[in-house]
Amino acid sequence: MPINAKALASFIERAGKRIPDPVIIFMAFYPAAFLLTVVMSGHSFETLGTGGETVTHQINGMHQAEHVRWIFDNALLANWLGFGGGVLGVILVVMLAVGVAENSGLFGALIKRAGSHLPQSILPLLLIFLGIMSSMATDAGYLVLIPLAGLLYAGLNRNPLIGMAAAFAGVSAGFSANLLPGPVDAIIGQNAQAFAEAQGVPFVSATGQALTPETMHWFFIIASTFVLSATGYWVTRRFVEPRLDREDFVVPTEINPGEFQVSNLERKGLRAAGLGTLVALLMIAGLAFGPLASFTNEAGDPVRPYIDNMILLISLFFVVTGAFFGVAVGKFRSVMDVVKAMVGQMNTMGYVLVLTFFTYNFLGLLNYSGLGTWITFLGAEFLQALGLQKFPILLLVGFILVTAVINIFIGGLTSKWMLLGPIFVPMLYVVNPAMTPDLVAAAFRVADSSTNIITPMMTYAGVILAFMRKYRPDMAFGDMLLIMLPYSVAFLTIWTLLLVGFFALGIPLGI
Prior knowledge:
Order of helices and strands: HHEEHHHHHHHHHHEEHHHHHHHHHH
Distance between the termini: 46 Å
Strand order of the largest sheet: 1-2
Number of strands: 4
Strand content: under 5%
Number of helices: 22
Shape: globular
Helix content: 55-70%
Number of domains: 1
């Protein structure tokens, strides 16, 4: 068994290294799509409109002068900065706010404080829960919680890899679950809306209600948080603990447990952050019941400005609490220090800017030329030929499995969503209107997160392996895969069943 697992890990690692970076993929896709429009210039096909009428589409040859002018006129503003109604701007605003809280040290202190008060009897459960919740804190879960989990178990004279595995499962495999909407919800939701509207797919739920991108999965991610925490706890107790408790481990002398203990200054900061939380909630409540309160417009339709601006309200919460903590611990001595925290966060967004430039321009070309509609048309025809339109649950499960496999070879939630979303959001809806954009996006999130912990393509795979090697110096990626595989299989299975349950019972995924 270990030999097979290591062989599988070696194969995945070799195959993954042959796959270009997503930026390179989109750089290659653009000229390929351009040439395809030249070959197919003038080709027409028919689809059914939303009212059942026949709609004729035609492929635009992008080599023609008017279309070349369109490329240059729209490359920056419409296709990149303005794509999907300015989705890039929304993402950047969220990251600015998270940057204030993260660079103040608030997230790290919260994780250390919670970790130091975990009862031994439910230690794995709480580690997984904290790991899931840490997705709001971007890197903090990987860089603070997982090493802390190892120290906690070492202090109990138990194999530190048990705690690190549980925390890793929560941080990475449960990445798309949480109790509050966050950056992932903004990225997935805003782009899902753009993908749907670009192909004429209504951005509504199964009940016909208009979706709010940032909160369209809120109910589902709340349920997922508790279900995955319980699942991960069961896996830890049933499979991971019995195996690792029998294995030897070392505790290096250079590891200082005090490094992950809450300092007096951090305790002061957390008390200030508690006050900041109260202030932030009062500010949000004042806005929600004041200028952003619900009202009925002239057409008699209800308007909920506080829901439409949910991502900005969440961003306000992070800024206020982060600022209170940063001032209390001396990290923020002036407004300029807060600005530097935002700048520091933006320094990590350079790759996203490059990726979205090529991605959104490619998607703009697909939409304008008609290739995107044609690809959707072909995929829908193929799925309908298989008769899957009669079995929406099979469509849903099939999409999850395909995405889960792709995730093993291509890292990065955003890049994969850019690859799969524009195709599958409209395609699955055309095949069966029950496959609404929020359902397809939720299926993607389930698949993408579940296999993060068994692929070397995940950004922090090497970092986590290095952390684990402190306690087991000869550990290879195949060994880590063996430890994490039960979590991946269990999460993928249970999470898929949870989503199918939401769909089959008609439970809304969010608001």
